[in-house]
Amino acid sequence: MAKKKRDFDPHAFLATISEGRKLVLFPRKQTIFAQGDTADAVFYIQTGKVKLTVVSKNGKEATIGILGDGDFFGEGGLAGQLLRMSSATAMTDCAVLRIDKRAMMEALHREHEFSDLFVAYLLARNIRYEEDLVDQLFNSSEKRLARILLLLAHFGKEGKPETVVPKISQEMLAEMVGTTRSRVSFFMNRFRKLGFIHYNGGLQVHSSLLHIVLHD
């Protein structure tokens, strides 16, 4: 049973949805949906990177997540959310599957393995948000930056460093960390001098950066 679940391919299964499914190509920087739009569909990233942001009533913007291949987003409508609570923007050229709310609900009822995978994904996302809150409340900005870099690099996958989102700005990292750009610049330079990160056509993160997260 465990092997069967590991072999389940959500990409292939989603391709079997005949109605209410549409592949949409978004060029870099294009808005996929905006905060306040009707929450009438779920999205699945086939390729590319997507940024989720929120804007406060006084106009302050914050980045709350960066998603990649195989991630879902915009699922709030399935739980009764009428309007989008955040905006989604393509960070790179993206191929995104747009699945109408009704079609997604039918797919979840039709295929239990897909339903199990989707619920597990939502639980993992919820745990991530809880960890983000604890991180924001109790950890220093240096530790928060180190943790975000490790998450963006998908640390632990195949045991090797991976390229973080190309051209991710220090302003965006500052938004995610909850600090200033100058502080992010200071810590990034420190990480580089210590050999925790390096630049080679993109930002490479090494497992040694965990020292910052785990050190009291």
The helicity comes to 25-40%
User: Radius of gyration from the CA trace?
Assistant: 18 Å
> What structural class is derived from the secondary structure elements?
alpha+beta
Euclidean distance between termini CA atoms: 42 Å
Q: Name the strands of the widest sheet in spatial order.
A: 1-8-3-6
**Low-confidence region ranges:** 1-5
Tally of separate helices: 8
Mean pLDDT: 86
Count the E strands. 10
How big a fraction of the residues is strand?
15-25%
Sheet with most strands: 4 strands, antiparallel
Tertiary shape? globular
**What oligomeric arrangement do these chains adopt?**
single chain
Order of helices and strands: HHEEEEEEEEHHHHHEEH
Keywords:
four-stranded antiparallel β-sheet, 10 strands, 8 helices, disordered N terminus, alpha+beta, 216 residues
How is this structure best summarized?
With 216 residues, this protein is α+β, with helices and mostly antiparallel strands.
